[in-house]
UniProtKB/TrEMBL annotation:
The keyword Metal-binding does not apply. Belongs to the peptidase S11 family. GO terms for molecular function: serine-type D-Ala-D-Ala carboxypeptidase activity. One of its GO terms (biological process) is peptidoglycan biosynthetic process. It comes from the Bacteria. It comes from Thermobrachium celere DSM 8682. The lineage of its organism: Bacteria, Bacillati, Bacillota, Clostridia, Eubacteriales. Keywords: Carboxypeptidase, Cell shape, Cell wall biogenesis/degradation, Hydrolase, Peptidoglycan synthesis, Protease, Signal. Its EC number is 3.4.16.4. The active site is at 67 (proton acceptor), 70 (proton acceptor), 127. It holds the Pfam family Peptidase_S11. Substrate binds at residue 232. Residues 37-267 form the Peptidase S11 D-alanyl-D-alanine carboxypeptidase A N-terminal domain. This is D-alanyl-D-alanine carboxypeptidase.
């Protein structure tokens, strides 16, 4: 009876220890997510190369997005009319009296000619509300179709299923406003940087001059955070203070490989707060992630007893890099091609190298460092038989001179 009681106690003790370990692990996960203590409704940090989420807070919560809407206005306009259209001119045909006195607008009069690129600059740097309206007018004049419908079609095409637009500027009109999530907006920024990276020549400007007047960027991190070069601010009463930023972190990485992060914060309570919270995300990215770089001169040896020498030396066909957590070591694995030639020549592609981190996996061709010749069929057959017998323990080993 006593043995049974002791056994029961031991079982309960083991269960308690396991539960404690689970709670400790869970607390670490929760702590990792709460580490930044972000003061915003929603936020996300992603890798601009892979789109992988590195940190998030309520990333899928649907919220008003205010003027960060203008990123989709830019993307839709350029996608549909082409980047070459930016270098053209158009005639401004809007009556500015329709805008409120405190609304940011570019000082231009109806009938004046303006370069399309200047309108885009005004929209992305100063957040001028008459700029997207003029771009919409031009698009609908050329394409003969509704621009807002095209914005929503584009969102669906990109898989931004929690995003819906009612206007190109992000303003609240008649209690209607544009809706999205931090994650959808991060993904949109990811696509923009993949296809239209020239946007950075606009969003990196601290100010621009037009018709003798200077317009300052609404992004106060420009020039105050090394490597930051975009992307867009937003504010309405409904949305609060929002900010999408992107950081060229290769300036911190110690190697020449691209490294860029995208951050989104939605629903901050003040102008200053959105920049403070964005700094937290960017600092977290810099302090916790880096590129693992494998250069093309790194060699590997793979045992293959079918070839003279029993070892094949390989190296990557080119440099390869992948994002990783600074506290992890990547897993490397090699897979030789299923069929190899009788004679392997130097620089022949004979396999693949797989590099796995917590962020993702990359692969690269492996090429032969030297020439290799396959052993004769008789020798290979005898070698396989010898190994079979050796594994079965029938005799120690058989020595055969190479043929």
């Amino acid at each position: 009876m006593l043995k049974l009681e002791r056994g029961a106690v031991m079982k309960r003790l083991i269960v308690l220890i396991c539960l404690s370990l689970i709670l400790i692990i869970d607390n670490k996960i929760v702590f990792a997510q709460d580490l930044l203590n972000l003061r915003c409704k929603s936020a996300v940090l992603i890798d601009a190369e892979s789109g992988k989420v590195l940190y998030e807070k309520n990333k899928d919560e649907r919220l008003p997005i205010a003027s960060i809407t203008k990123l989709m206005t830019f993307y839709t306009f350029v996608e549909e009319l082409g980047e070459e259209y930016i270098n053209g001119y158009l005639t401004y045909n809007i009556d500015n009296s329709k805008y409120k006195k405190d609304e940011p607008i570019l000082d231009i009069k109806a009938g004046e000619r303006i370069k399309t690129g200047d309108l885009i600059t005004a929209m992305l740097v100063f957040s001028a509300n008459n700029a997207p309206d003029m771009l919409v007018n031009e698009y609908e004049r050329v394409k003969k179709e509704n621009f807002i419908e095209k914005m929503n079609q584009t969102a669906k095409k990109l898989g931004l299923n929690d995003t819906y637009y009612v206007n190109p500027s992000g303003l609240t009109k008649e209690n209607k406003y544009n809706i999205s999530t931090a994650y959808d907006q991060a993904r949109l920024s990811y696509y923009i940087l993949k296809k239209h990276k020239d946007i950075l020549r606009y969003t990196s400007k601290k100010y621009f001059d037009y018709n003798g007047k200077r317009y300052y960027s609404t992004n106060k991190l420009l020039g105050n955070y090394h490597g930051l070069d975009g992307l867009k601010t937003g504010y309405t009463k409904e949305a609060g203070y929002c900010l999408i930023s992107t950081l060229d972190a290769s300036k911190y990485s110690g190697n020449s490989k691209p490294l860029r992060f995208i951050t989104v914060v939605l629903g901050c309570s003040s102008d200053a707060e959105r920049f403070v919270e964005t700094r937290k995300l960017l600092d977290y990215a810099k302090n916790n992630f880096e590129n693992y770089v494998l250069d093309s001169e790194k060699t590997f040896e793979v045992k293959n007893t079918d070839y003279v020498g029993d070892l094949i030396k390989l190296k990557p066909s080119g440099d390869v890099y992948i994002l990783k957590n600074k506290h992890e070591s990547p897993e490397l694995s090699i897979k030789l091609n299923d069929k190899l030639n009788r004679k392997i020549r130097k620089n022949d592609v004979i396999g693949r190298l797989f590099i796995k981190t917590s962020i993702g996996t990359k692969e690269v061709d492996l090429i032969s460092v030297n020439d290799y010749t396959r052993k004769s069929l008789f020798f290979r057959l005898f070698q396989h038989i010898k190994n079979l017998f050796k594994n079965m323990g029938w005799f120690g080993w058989i020595e055969l001179k190479k043929i």
